[in-house]
Every structure is written in structure tokens, then in C-alpha cells.
Amino acid sequence: MAGAETLPWWAARLRAERERRGWNKHEMARRLLKATGRPYPPVTSLVRQILGWEKGEHFPRDWTAAYATAFDTTEEELFRPPPDLGLAGYGGGGAGSGWEEVGATKRRDALRLGLAASVAPAAMAAVLGEAATEAMEFTRLAGASAVGAGTFDHLQAAVAAIDRSYTSEPPAEVFAVARAYRARVHELIRGPHTLKEGRELYVWAAWLSELLAWLAHDLGHPLTAEAYAIDSFEHADQAGHDELCAWAADALASIATYTDRPEHAVTAAHKGIARAPDDHPIAVRLRAKAARAHARLGHRAECEDLLRGAEELHNRLPTEPPTRFGMDTGPLAEYAVTAYPASAFIWLEDYEQAERHAERAVAVHEATPSSDPSPGHVAIARIDLGIALCHLGAPDAAAAAGVTALESSRVFESLRSRAGDLDAALTARYPETGHARDFHERYLELRRAPGVRPT
């Protein structure tokens, strides 16, 4: 082992700078990795390299920028030889001193700074030779990837299957599958991949998180649902995928509405409106959700203005709207302009309008039941119809609508919440009627169930 007096000046400086900050070699490795923008060996391997650099065994040729960032200085300042050394390090200027590497670095810097004219012809030839090698390495690294062939085809098939099973399989089981795929995509993002692959991985991460947000919401865990919805929006935004940002904001708006945070729901819906294409059903849906949230706040003018906007966009949608993993998204817009107004007018205490919209929503669903990608939606429309009928003096019809809703093939947390509203209305206004008591018993059974009832 070389003594301190024989260390190359750069080795002694790297060790001194690290020790001055109180960092051990593992902390130095962590900070170097943090400073780099591309994958490097594991920390244990990097610790061994740091030991070699500080012993002067070899110069950290590819890590000079990372060292400068970690030490909060510049490469020029950190690797400038002491003025009294000339061209020699503490261990001399021969092989192993590191001066060859420093000289190569200085020649590359001279070329990069446009000072090539000051370099001797022989040195310039060396610089150009090194530059060719570097360019080849740059090209190799640009294509370096751990994303295997067929990965994206597999992800597309998997996400489509998860999206389809959302309405037909037990949500807890679907959640577990989607979560496993989301974790795998995260691993691929952290590993080596091309820039193009990175963007596509972010898109699939966002789709999976959007599905996980809805599943967690249906399972009655709003904190997890909101965390996944935020993650979905962030990854979609990083990927520049506006439509996917709108889907994520749509989930955020619903989660906020059903956790009694209408202000957050308004903000989330408008965040999505800003990104949604006007010719897409998601743009209709977001405006209707914003209207519903304004109604919860008692803002009738804003609510009605947004509902008109949603209806106008709905009327201008293409005859063949875009699909979502092969599924027709048109029914989502149709539901938005019928069922969401029903909920909105209930919160505005305009029960005649609410009844009219809820009946329309149920009729639309019954006319085209097979095309609705979310058949559980009609259950909430029936609950809203029941609430409106209760306030309009028809408790028997109200309870009957509620019972039909609870017989839905998919009972989820949002339905539980709205069923609670109908139960409260019937219990408060008509506590002695047989239909109200019957619905109350069914609602209590639903509340006692251990989880969301699968198909």
C-alpha cells in the first residue's frame, strides 16, 4: 500500500475531501450514485473502486463529474494539480500516477472548450482518437437496456386484461395482480433502458396506478386510492400523455367527492379538463364531475354552467369515440351527462330535476347494458332516483329503487356511501313504513359485509 507521501495528488485530494465532510466510503458511493444520471455498479462494487482511487491505483476517469457534484465544486477546480507540482503527481509522472488520465481529461476539456488551436498536433491526434472511442461508447450506452423483447406487448395485454376484469372479478384479487405488475414496471424504470423505452414505461406505470386507484377506492381505502391516482398523474405528466393525465384526474375527483372534499374534487376535475382532448369522452366526464362537486358546495350557477358544457361536448363527440384497451368509452360520457346531474341536483335539493336525470340514466343503461364498461354505475343512478323519490313523497318507490340497486352484480364502496344517504333519508322521513324498514335491513347487511361483494 502506498504511503501518503507517495500518493498521487488527486488520490490524496479525493480522500481528504471525503474525510473533511465526515463521509465513509459507503456514503461517498451513495453520493456519487446520486450525482450520476445513468445506472452504475451496485454500491458495494463502487466502494471497492473508491478504495482503489484513494490509493492511487487508477484515476476515476468516468466519475470526475460525479465527484465534482458530490463535493459541490467544478471538475476543473477539484482536479487541478497543485501549482508546485508541474506535471508530476506525488508519486511522479510515470505509469500508475494518474497523470496520464489527467492529461487525457485536460485534452478533452480543451477540445470541448474550443481551445483546440492551443494543443500541439500530436496531442490533437490523441484527442481525436479518444473522441472516436468515446462516441462509440456513447452510442453503445444509448442503446443499453434491460427491457426485454416483447415487454411492452406483454404489458399491453396484461393491463387490458386487468382493465376488463375490473368489473367482473373480485377487486381484491385484481388489485394484487395489478400491484405486482406495477412493482415490476418500477423495477424496469430503475434499471437500464433507452430514453424511448423510459417514456413508454412511465405510461404503463401510470395506467397501472390509475387502475390501482380505482380498485383501492372500491375496496374502501381512500388514502391508498388517492396515492395511486397522484402517482398516475405524475407519471403520465412526465411522459407527456395528456389523455392519461385526464384519466388520473378523473379518479382523483371521484375519490375527493366520496371523502367529502368537494373543493379538492373541483380542483382535480379542472386539472384534468386542462389536459383532456375535447373530442374524448373523458372531457365530458370531467366537466360533469366538476359540476357535481360544485353542487356539493352549493354553487348552482357553476354547476349548471359545467353541465351545459358537458352536454355540448357530448353532442359533438365522434360517432366512434376512442376506445380504452379495446373497450368503448362512449357509455362513460353517456353516463356522465345523465347520472352525474342526478347526484348534483340532489345536493342542490332540486329533487324534480334529480328524478328526471336519474330516470334517464337508468333508461340509457337498460337500453344498452352490454356496452357499459362499468355496469355498477347504474346502481348509483338507482340510489339517486330513490333519494329523489323519497323527498318527493314516494317512500315505497324510493325503497324499491334502493333494493334494486343493492342487488347489483357489483357492490362497491361508492354504492355503500350513496346507499347510506338513501337509508338516512328514508329513516328520517318515513321510519315506520315497511319498505323503509326493509331497505334499512338490507343496507345494514351491506355494511356488515367484510368487504366489497364480488361478482
From TrEMBL:
SUPFAM superfamilies tied to this protein: TPR-like
InterPro entries linked: TPR-like_helical_dom_sf
Record-given protein name: XRE family transcriptional regulator
